[in-house]
Structures are given as C-alpha cells and as structure tokens.
Amino acid sequence: MDKFLVNGGKSLFGTVQISGAKNAVLPIMAATIIAPGKYCIKNVPSLRDTYTMKRLLEMSGAVILFKNNIMNIDTSDCSNPIAPYDLVKTMRASFYILGPFMSRFNHAEVSLPGGCAWGPRPVDLHLMALEKLGADVSLSNGMIVAKGRLKGAFISFQTSSVGATGNAIMAAVKAKGETIIENAAREPEIESLCIFLNKMGANINGVGTDVLTIIGQDELHAGIEYEIIPDRIEAGTFLLAAAITKGKIVLNNVYPDHMRIVLEYLEKSGVEIDANTKSIHINAINSSISP
Known about the structure:
Layout: E1 13-17, H1 22-31, E2 38-42, H2 48-60, E3 63-67, E4 70-74, E5 82-83, H3 85-88, H4 98-105, E6 107-111, H5 124-132, E7 136-140, E8 143-147, E9 154-156, H6 162-172, E10 178-182, H7 188-199, E11 203-205, E12 211-215, E13 224-227, H8 232-244, E14 248-252, H9 260-268, E15 272-275, E16 279-283
Parallel strand pairs: 1-14, 2-13, 5-6, 9-10
Antiparallel strand pairs: 2-4, 3-4, 6-8, 7-8, 10-12, 11-12, 14-16, 15-16
Helix pairs in contact: 1-2, 1-7, 4-6, 5-6, 6-7
C-alpha cells in the first residue's frame, strides 16, 4: 500500500504558488466540445484527471497540445460522442462530457461510472436534467445512451449537485427556448463554467446564485482564451498546514473571495491574515492553535 511518511514538529515558512482548480478545468475542457474550433486554456494543473479528460476529448476527435500549464484544444473535427467505461471508471468527472455531447451532436453514449448496474445511481440527477430537457435516455450494455433535440425546461434539483448542475448548464446552452435551473450549485467552479460559456456566446443569467436562467442559442463560438481559477482546496490545505504548525507563509495565485469562511475562522483562532486581490499572507506564529 502506498503511503506518506511525515516527520512533523517544524513550522512551515515560505511562498507557495497555487495551481489552477482541477474541479474548474474539467468541465471547461468538456465544454469546448459544444462549439467546434480552437481554445486556449491557461493555468491548467498537470494532474492525472486533466490527462484523463484530455484523452477523452482526443477520442472524440479533438487535437490537444498541453505544455507549461497551457492547453490548446481544437475541437473542429470532433465526431465521436462516446465516452467508454475504461476512461469513465477512472474519473467520475468524465461524466461532464454528457451535456456537451448532447449540445453538439444531439446524441451521447457515456458509460455509467459503475458499469452495467442500473439501480440507484449517483448520476440520477444528471439524467433527470437531460430528460427534463427532452432527451430520450436509455441504458445499453452499461452505456447511458441519450438522443434527441433538446428544448428549454424547468429543472429543480432536490439536492444541489455541482456535477449535475454543470451538465445541465452545458446541455441547455443550445436547447431551444428558456431553461430555468432551480437549486443550482453556486460553487466558484460552476460560476467559472458559466463565465466561460457566456464568453462563447451563451446566455446564462443568475450566475453565482442558486437560480439560473438560460436562453438557448442556435450556435456558440470558439476562439476563446480563458484562465482557470485557483484551486481553493489546495489553498485551504496550505493555510491550515501553516496554522497548525504555527508557521508563516504567502500564497500567490489565490482568490481570497473564494476562501472567505476559511479565512474568517482562522482569524477567530488568532491567526493573522492579510489578503489582497490574488494573494494571502498568513502568520500563525503567535496564534493560540495547538498542534
């Protein structure tokens, strides 16, 4: 079994550059399928999941160059709306491809993350949203098969879901008419996806709230250059590590607005926080936090 051995007892000091957010880049990568053309995505983290989504897009026909945290994607020749089990099983976020496939091809074949078992599924909310939009959804040999021209609809999520919200948004941006998504996820990663899609020509209103109104467009456009937001989970991990070791560090490439609750409670614990537009200085040397 793989393991980490950590020899503790030392305070952390120094400067850290926070990576781009994995949970923001994956749906944005998938969204490039919606409109054929070229995209330049910056601040892309070099992670296994990023490469898995890259492989999935390439299987659909995309041409991708990934170097120095910049990903250039050309989806002009995509023609294969299929996401096989071998890839989906390694990364649940592969399911984000369902909405974009339906937007572009009116057809999608995406493996269930758990294979052939139908039963209660962790993707129920995704499928409910597609069916509300008019898709004909069925199961064939462990593959979700969805087809049909999508139409605007009212979608109310019983439970707020980041993944299902993202898929519903990407499916709705080209659906005919108006779509309202109630109890939509409000996480920064969903907000970032909406901003990216609006740059492509989508009409999404209510961004950052739990009610989204989407007016479907006949076509969206490529040619987008976009920078991925910083990873708030990575940033929070470093902040807490500095706090519990009574350290003093600087985080660069971070959005303090995405960390408000974490920063608030650290300050309540006696940690000194100095935040500006894209950096956070944390000084826990004199804090009352006990390791």
